[in-house]
Amino acid sequence: MKNTQKKLKAKHFRYLSKDVVKNPMIYIRDFYRYETNIIYWMNHIQLFVNAATVPEMADRNFAENGYHCKQMIKQIEVAYVIFHQCQLPIQDAPLNFFSTKEDYHNYLFRMEHTVNGKLAPADTISKFFSYQSLQKWYETMDDIMHYLTVPDSGNYEYFGDQIIVIREMLIRLAFALSYIYENEGLSLTVPSYVKAVNKEPHQSTEKKNKFRQLIEDSIDKKYAEKEAQENSSEIDENQSLETPEIPKNENSELETT
């Protein structure tokens, strides 16, 4: 089953800008290059989810829960853009994380999320939205943020066993986006006869190219004018250095008789 929704726009999301909707790599590069690394981010996710599940575990003095919640929602939105644009499939068994024994060992000993031994961020994103829709993920994150404001858990059991899946999915999604950052893009498996064709360049890139072209044209024009001026000066200088010929005149006084 393929995702067949209409073209995505920034208004469909809470936090994504128009540029990020067109090119999710803008956010992915910015976050994993300047904000944090995957290990730190994984720890933030674990503490965040734990605090929402058991409020007594919340560290309200140091944890920036509002910021972390917003970043997680942003990552979910970015992943959904990839899910939609790449037309990733809906999986019947999204909680089946280990296809082979090698995948299990990679997870256990190398902290890698693989499919048939290979890093597979597209599969993780597919599983993420196969488990529940974007709207459901919004509701989940809103509930988590709400429970962070509760002083104690009392007799309530928030989320139940589902919280284990939620935490695992959020962490796996963070790793998937990190893999995309490290690989400078998302690799997809296609039949051998399929050739990839890139879409139109991103708007900001197109503007940059036009601006650069204007600069280059201006520089070329200045060099051409300068070269023409130098050539003209050189010609004038050469002409001034030449000895003028004395015209022959039969009646000239210089002739001897």
How would you characterize the overall build of this protein?
With 257 residues, the chain is mostly helical. It folds into 2 domains: 181 residues, no CATH class; 37 residues. It contains 9 helices and 2 strands, in the order H-H-H-H-H-E-E-H-H-H-H. Helix 2 crosses helix 8 and helix 4 packs across helix 8. The longest helix is centred in the last third of the chain and has 39 residues. The C terminus is likely disordered.
Rg on CA atoms, Å? 33 Å
List SSEs in N-to-C order.
HHHHHEEHHHH
Shape: extended
Total helix count? Answer: 9
Number of domains: 2
The main β sheet shows up as:
2 strands, antiparallel
Fold blueprint:
Blueprint: H1 18-22, H2 25-35, H3 38-53, H4 65-85, H5 101-110, E1 114-115, E2 118-119, H6 121-131, H7 134-147, H8 162-182, H9 203-241
Antiparallel strand pairs: 1-2
Helix pairs in contact: 2-8, 3-7, 3-8, 4-6, 4-7, 4-8, 6-8
Region (Disordered): 222-257
